[in-house]
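ingest -> validate -> predict -> emit
validate: passed (alphabet ok, no gaps, 236 aa)
predict: started
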Amino acid sequence: MNIIAFNCNHNKSINVPDKIFSAFLRGMAKTNANISCYDLLDLEIKPCLACTNNIGFVPNLTCQQDDSMQQLYPLLKNSEIWVFAAPAYKSYASASFRNLLDRLEPIFHTPEDFGAEPDDIFYRSNATPGKLVLLSATEQEASEFKFVVEQMRMIADIFGKKFLTPILRDNIGIMNFLEEIGNEQTDIYSALEEAGMQAVYNDDFDGNIINVISKDLFQKDSFLKKVAHSPEEILL
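emit:
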């Protein structure tokens, strides 16, 4: 089993997203799968040149941009599971994450597509069939996830991957604060490790595991709820 995983979290001032990603990968590693892991900040991924808009374009599984994607294309093509740990914003993706998704196109087009009907092209992919996992976190509330979930569902459909139930963790600001004062959310990280194993062995995640990962960190209308977006105010 080949797996490629991307940590697309660019805000390192809060360490919870990175810890979520690491816990999930620890679970995957227990299955002895072959995992290729990358932090998007360590890669050079240039914007897409939109070559397919050129009337003379002939697809050939290569890209004109000379950057980190050249080493990633074979891994993406041959990995059964794609994992993306991406931040959630209401209506847009970060520039680096958008570049990564835009540059997946060479895996999608094939020389045989030239002259095919548009519908045939849209549903044909050179990627290995398998699964796509989204791990997403936000400092806001769950409504922030809609855009990134829809975006990744579309990517899964295009490349013939089964889109597993997304793993979503809201209010990470308050979670980060709780951990800073010694209240480590060990049940969440244990559930993430279990989810990592389930991603390899199962068709989807167990609902109870998802519930633990996305559990409320405070009661409705509680004091913590009111300062969830500015936890430093608790110290005042």
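The first strand starts at residue 2 and ends at 7.
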